[in-house]
């Protein structure tokens, strides 16, 4: 562990590196406990750096064997070396070659950063600062070098030796060992380095690029799992094609490889030419994967592939610019999915996700800007704010400057900055140029944390035939940012007439575009020639990541739900009415009152199950009520999770009572057979059927549970099996136990399926959840060293089970804090991530708030806190 409270890193203190590295030659002698790494670095002083500076290289838990400059060994006196750094006080003032030999222990690497073992394979994870766990290096993204990598290992255990770029040589190395040499011609930062060695199965295919170059495609998985890699392979080809069509981006090596590993801290990693994936996001077959798995794999394969241009060819100058590659690449993968599946449904899913994760983060003590200005531990900034809000800011920019200027700006960015390590300013400057707009104020989206709240008040003047829309924006203080200034908010708006059609928008005597700019604290727009009172449809397609409070009545919203030409706002209208009801109902529960359900709300939800409804995936979204988290965020303070749960449950029961016939009819009508296909239409069909089932089983209704049990037993695909088990798991009783036991019996041998089993039990809102999770932690299928297991059981409990995590007796907090304490030393990154469950603790009612605080303070007082955990705990308590 590092010393107490190291100095934070600040954006304002960025300085170019004093040295550059042009070429890197790496030589790995693989050994489970003593891998030798020889790094030969062609270095020179950076003209932009400090002439005469000492050479200070980063390390992390490293053991130095030797150092030489231009072939001459340096002795100990010439060096200042520790596991964390290597300083050479007087390096040559011109170009030189530095040779460093280190020894590392992949087997002992439980942090899964640097070179480690997963099952019997060797693999690496270097982003953000893992390369320094392999060799001493200028481990910063603005040092770009060309890498040649020689890997030598036992031929039997590691028939496969992979690294970035293309293989240029291989052969025997004596004593049952062999070697391969890889060369990556594209300069890259160290965080994009990768090595994989082991005995894996492979699926191969090829892709011909738009200029006619042939690319070999390879997906590596454990032997016997090859049939589960076909969907990933199809997704690679689709991604390559889409990036050519949508952005004119062509792949740039002769081979593109994806490797699935079972121990991985995150989702996946975009190492140049050699993407390393969490196996959860590669493996899929009709027998083992749900519709959601298929969709996730497609999206994450695309995300990592798209990084080849937004991340690899153009990378970040420093880690404060992380959203330069992540926000942009999320935006690109969202667009890919929208083009392949349903654009409105994808938008709804993304906004649900943004609100659930990013709005929650922005409203609590861990709030930070899309581009942070300070960090203690960069691993803690791979957040929904950097990723998802980062993507929203780009989407909003596109809305604001228009499609053509946006596309031209992207072209300019690729053109101008290819091969560079860039800043957000350089990215935004491209769009300022192509749009001709001043984007100075726009930068506040990157620098100011918090979700802007927009209040809209409207007035129709029947005599003057005008419709006035008045807006006000505020952003509440966030940690370190007490004062906020207005941001540029594009509001896409429509006025819907009594016939349901959009009315013309006339402002100042002329037709107006539907995108209005709210750049001041208040704005007033007056529409003219408005023949009849319109219903305003505000922030169509969620044109900005803001929280909206409007005076549009429930009645008008329900009118929009049936008529708005914008599908997003048809969905949003029902959500808003439901949310208003649920907030009132949760307050009423605490006062022992009941809140009647507006029959028009039930009717609007019921329309999702209408036989006429063609778009099942969209209808399923309409039928899915706001989550308990959505309700808690809306309430914002003195939150009682039990009251929220009760209110939501009551609403589901009321909907069941009112809609029983329609639900039963829909459930029967939506039955299907035939072979499984994960395509969007089939998946949408299944999701609507499950939405009907979920409502039919509301309140533990016996008939509903019987239907769920029948579906569970007769399921012919994993979606139906998992989703029916999930419905059953919400209601204590024999059916629940029977399904869970059956599932474990069938799939006990498959860790990824057992993850679903863990997750469903961990997130069930039943009073025995803590005991269950504790019991499951002791089960043979659980493994504290595997991040997927930990996230499925403890992560799902902390972030997906509001009533039980927030138990009034504090046992839920103690459970999650206890696991984080245990993982603090073995895998601090995963430990810190689990503590994300505490990000909204300050909004709770006083008793729970006190208990959450006790759990956090307990962690804060632990000796040997990792930088990762210490950073989260300290910020959460600040
Ligand atoms: N760049 C990866 C992505 O595609 C994520 C890597 C995160 N790594 C980490 N150590 N936090 O989003
Ligand atoms: Zn990414």
UniProtKB/TrEMBL annotation:
<dbReference type="InterPro" id="IPR014782">
    <property type="entry name" value="Peptidase_M1_dom"/>
</dbReference>
<dbReference type="InterPro" id="IPR035414">
    <property type="entry name" value="Peptidase_M1_pepN_Ig-like"/>
</dbReference>
<dbReference type="Pfam" id="PF01433">
    <property type="entry name" value="Peptidase_M1"/>
</dbReference>
<dbReference type="InterPro" id="IPR045357">
    <property type="entry name" value="Aminopeptidase_N-like_N"/>
</dbReference>
<dbReference type="InterPro" id="IPR012779">
    <property type="entry name" value="Peptidase_M1_pepN"/>
</dbReference>
<dbReference type="InterPro" id="IPR027268">
    <property type="entry name" value="Peptidase_M4/M1_CTD_sf"/>
</dbReference>
<dbReference type="InterPro" id="IPR037144">
    <property type="entry name" value="Peptidase_M1_pepN_C_sf"/>
</dbReference>
<keyword id="KW-0031">Aminopeptidase</keyword>
<keyword id="KW-0482">Metalloprotease</keyword>
<dbReference type="InterPro" id="IPR001930">
    <property type="entry name" value="Peptidase_M1"/>
</dbReference>
<feature type="domain" description="Peptidase M1 membrane alanine aminopeptidase">
    <location>
        <begin position="232"/>
        <end position="444"/>
    </location>
</feature>
<dbReference type="Pfam" id="PF17432">
    <property type="entry name" value="DUF3458_C"/>
</dbReference>
<keyword id="KW-0862">Zinc</keyword>
<comment type="similarity">
    <text>Belongs to the peptidase M1 family.</text>
</comment>
<keyword id="KW-0645">Protease</keyword>
<feature type="domain" description="Aminopeptidase N-like N-terminal">
    <location>
        <begin position="26"/>
        <end position="192"/>
    </location>
</feature>
<dbReference type="InterPro" id="IPR024601">
    <property type="entry name" value="Peptidase_M1_pepN_C"/>
</dbReference>
<feature type="domain" description="Peptidase M1 alanyl aminopeptidase C-terminal">
    <location>
        <begin position="554"/>
        <end position="877"/>
    </location>
</feature>
<protein>
    <recommendedName>
        <fullName>Aminopeptidase N</fullName>
        <ecNumber>3.4.11.2</ecNumber>
    </recommendedName>
</protein>
<dbReference type="InterPro" id="IPR042097">
    <property type="entry name" value="Aminopeptidase_N-like_N_sf"/>
</dbReference>
<keyword id="KW-0479">Metal-binding</keyword>
<dbReference type="GO" id="GO:0004177">
    <property type="term" value="F:aminopeptidase activity"/>
</dbReference>
<dbReference type="InterPro" id="IPR038438">
    <property type="entry name" value="PepN_Ig-like_sf"/>
</dbReference>
<dbReference type="Pfam" id="PF17900">
    <property type="entry name" value="Peptidase_M1_N"/>
</dbReference>
<feature type="domain" description="Peptidase M1 alanyl aminopeptidase Ig-like fold">
    <location>
        <begin position="450"/>
        <end position="550"/>
    </location>
</feature>
<keyword id="KW-0378">Hydrolase</keyword>
<dbReference type="Pfam" id="PF11940">
    <property type="entry name" value="DUF3458"/>
</dbReference>
């Amino acid at each position: 562990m590092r010393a107490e409270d190291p100095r934070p890193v600040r954006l304002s203190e960025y300085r170019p590196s004093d040295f550059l590295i042009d070429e890197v030659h790496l030589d790995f002698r693989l050994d489970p406990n003593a891998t030798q790494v020889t790094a030969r670095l062609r270095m020179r002083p950076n003209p932009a750096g400090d002439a005469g500076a000492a050479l200070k290289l980063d390390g992390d838990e490293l053991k130095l064997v030797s150092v030489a400059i231009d072939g001459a060994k340096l002795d100990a006196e010439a060096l200042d070396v520790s596991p964390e750094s290597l300083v050479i006080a007087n390096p040559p003032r011109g170009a030189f070659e530095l040779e460093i030999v280190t020894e590392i222990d992949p087997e002992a690497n439980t942090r899964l950063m640097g070179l480690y073992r997963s099952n019997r394979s060797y693999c690496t994870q270097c982003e953000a600062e893992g390369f320094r766990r392999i060799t001493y290096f200028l481990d910063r993204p603005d040092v770009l070098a060309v890498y040649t990598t020689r890997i030598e290992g036992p031929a039997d255990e590691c028939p496969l030796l992979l690294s970035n770029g293309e293989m240029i040589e291989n052969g025997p190395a004596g004593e049952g060992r062999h070697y391969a040499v890889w060369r990556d011609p594209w300069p890259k930062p160290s965080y994009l380095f990768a090595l994989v060695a082991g005995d894996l199965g492979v699926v191969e295919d090829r892709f011909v690029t738009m200029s006619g170059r042939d690319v070999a495609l390879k997906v590596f998985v454990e032997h016997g799992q090859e049939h589960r890699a076909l969907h990933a392979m199809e997704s690679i080809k689709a991604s390559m094609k889409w990036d050519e069509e949508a952005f004119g981006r062509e792949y740039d090596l002769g081979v593109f490889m994806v490797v699935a590993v079972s121990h991985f801290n995150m989702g996946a990693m975009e190492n140049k030419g050699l993407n390393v994936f969490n196996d959860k996001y590669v493996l899929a077959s009709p027998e083992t994967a749900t519709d959601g798995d298929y969709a996730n794999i497609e999206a994450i394969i695309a995300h990592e592939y798209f990084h080849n241009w937004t991340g690899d060819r153009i990378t970040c100058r420093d880690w404060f610019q992380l959203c330069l590659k992540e926000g942009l690449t999320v935006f690109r993968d969202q667009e890919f999915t929208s083009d392949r599946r349903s654009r409105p449904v994808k938008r709804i899913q993304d906004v649900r996700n943004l609100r659930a994760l990013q709005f929650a983060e922005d409203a609590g003590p861990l709030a930070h800007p899309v581009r942070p200005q300070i960090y203690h531990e960069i691993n803690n900034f791979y957040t929904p704010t950097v990723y998802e809000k980062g993507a929203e800011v780009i989407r909003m920019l596109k809305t604001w400057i228009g499609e053509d200027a946006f596309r031209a700006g992207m072209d300019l960015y690729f053109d101008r900055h290819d091969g560079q390590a860039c800043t957000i300013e350089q990215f935004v400057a491209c769009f300022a140029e192509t749009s001709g707009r001043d984007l100075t104020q726009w930068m506040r989206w990157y620098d100011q944390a918090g979700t802007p709240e927009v209040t809209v008040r409207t007035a129709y003047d029947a005599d003057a035939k005008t419709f006035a829309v008045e807006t006000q924006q505020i952003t509440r203080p966030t940690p370190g940012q007490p004062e906020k200034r207005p941001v540029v908010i594009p509001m896409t708006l429509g006025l819907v007439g009594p016939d349901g059609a959009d009315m013309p928008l006339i402002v100042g005597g002329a037709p107006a575009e539907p995108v209005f700019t709210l750049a001041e604290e208040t704005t007033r727009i007056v529409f003219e020639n408005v023949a009849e009172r319109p219903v305003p449809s505000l922030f169509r397609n969620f044109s900005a990541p803001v929280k909206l409070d409007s005076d549009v009545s429930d009645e008008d919203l329900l009118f929009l739900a049936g008529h708005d030409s914008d599908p997003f706002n048809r969905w949003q209208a029902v959500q808003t009415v439901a949310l208003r009801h649920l907030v009132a109902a949760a307050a009423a529960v605490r006062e022992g009152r009941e809140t009647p359900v507006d029959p028009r709300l039930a009717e609007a939800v019921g329309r999702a199950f209408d036989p006429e409804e063609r778009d099942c995936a969209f209808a399923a979204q309409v039928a899915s009520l706001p989550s308990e988290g959505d309700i808690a965020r809306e309430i914002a303070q003195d939150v009682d999770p039990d009251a929220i749960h009760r209110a939501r449950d009551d609403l589901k029961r009321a909907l069941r009572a009112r809609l029983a016939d329609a639900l039963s009819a829909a459930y029967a009508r939506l039955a299907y057979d035939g072979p499984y296909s994960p395509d969007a239409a089939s998946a949408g069909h299944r999701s609507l059927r499950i939405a009907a089932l979920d409502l039919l089983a509301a309140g533990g209704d016996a008939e509903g549970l019987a239907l769920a049990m029948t579906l569970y037993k007769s399921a012919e695909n994993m979606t139906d099996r998992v989703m029916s088990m999930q419905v059953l798991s919400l209601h204590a009783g024999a059916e629940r136990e029977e399904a869970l036991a059956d599932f474990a019996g069938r799939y006990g041998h498959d860790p990824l399926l057992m993850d679903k089993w863990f997750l469903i039990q961990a997130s069930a809102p039943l009073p025995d959840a803590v005991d269950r999770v504790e019991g499951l932690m002791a089960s043979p299928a659980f493994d504290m060293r595997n991040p997927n297991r930990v996230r499925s059981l403890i992560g799902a409990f902390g972030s997906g089970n509001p009533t039980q995590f927030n138990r009034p007796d504090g046992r839920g907090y103690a459970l999650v804090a206890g696991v984080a304490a245990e993982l603090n030393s073995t895998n601090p990154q995963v430990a810190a991530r689990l503590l994300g469950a505490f990000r909204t603790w300050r909004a709770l009612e006083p008793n729970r708030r006190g208990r959450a605080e006790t759990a956090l303070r307990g962690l804060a007082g632990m000796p040997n806190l990792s930088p990762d955990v210490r950073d989260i705990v300290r910020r959460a308590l600040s």
